[in-house]
Amino acid sequence: MPEGPSIVILKEKVQQFTGKKVIAAGCNNGALDAGLLINKTITGFKSWGKHFLICFPKFTIRIHLMMFGTYRINTHTEKPPRLHLQFADGELNFYACQLQLITEPLNKVYDWKADIMSDKWDTKHAIKKMKAEPALLACDALMNQQIFSGVGNIIKNEVLFRTCIHPESLVAAIPPKKMKELIAKAINYSFEFLEQKKKGTLKKHWQAYHKKECPRNHVPFMVEDTGRSRRASFYCELCQIKY
């Protein structure tokens, strides 16, 4: 599943279509009426966490690539796309994704202060949300899209390891200074992720995700499905403290 930084990369790649009119469109599962898009002009592209947003004057198409979604820019595969947008000088195709038509103003739909890649990110806002759920585990807090929109399993694992926090730590028990470190690292690593992804070096810099041994203590990583989502956590029992 693409994480927030990967959606930012997608947003950057499609800027050529801002201000362009859709001359043909298709949706292969009936999730939206593709006819609504024909002769409509794209006013911009936005992202909120893992959501990719195609903005038109009176509505927005929300695309979630889920676990196996892909896209093609100015090309296509033999498989019919979930969403096809044709322009006079190019095309956009999305596959195996979830689509939703949004007619409300985006500021009413999205909390931009929760987006890890947004310049509107608000640390105090995140702390307040976590304090409201004292029984929340650290792994669940990071994966909660209403608190850290855009964090996925890679970022979760890397941030917890780099801050020496056990994934099953209770949020309420994490010291305030350590909590601020966790949040700061979540934001900083997300932008490191972005730059490494662009360079094709992301996997080379992983310290915990899908690694077999702790680089600090040289002992085997524990691998368990943790938290509400039951997503895999790679952690070291020696250096990651369980608060």
UniProtKB/TrEMBL annotation:
Annotated GO biological process: base-excision repair
Formamidopyrimidine-DNA glycosylase catalytic domain mapped to chain residues: 2-94
Transmembrane portions of the chain: none
Recorded GO MF terms: class I DNA-(apurinic or apyrimidinic site) endonuclease activity; damaged DNA binding; oxidized purine nucleobase lesion DNA N-glycosylase activity; zinc ion binding
Reactions listed under catalytic activity: Hydrolysis of DNA containing ring-opened 7-methylguanine residues, releasing 2,6-diamino-4-hydroxy-5-(N-methyl)formamidopyrimidine
Pfam entry (one): H2TH
PROSITE patterns per UniProt: FPG_CAT
EC numbers on record: 3.2.2.-, 4.2.99.18
Swiss-Prot/TrEMBL keywords: DNA damage, DNA repair, DNA-binding, Endonuclease, Glycosidase, Hydrolase, Lyase, Multifunctional enzyme, Nuclease
Sequence similarity: Belongs to the FPG family.
Protein name, as recorded: Endonuclease
Annotated organism of origin: Mucilaginibacter phyllosphaerae
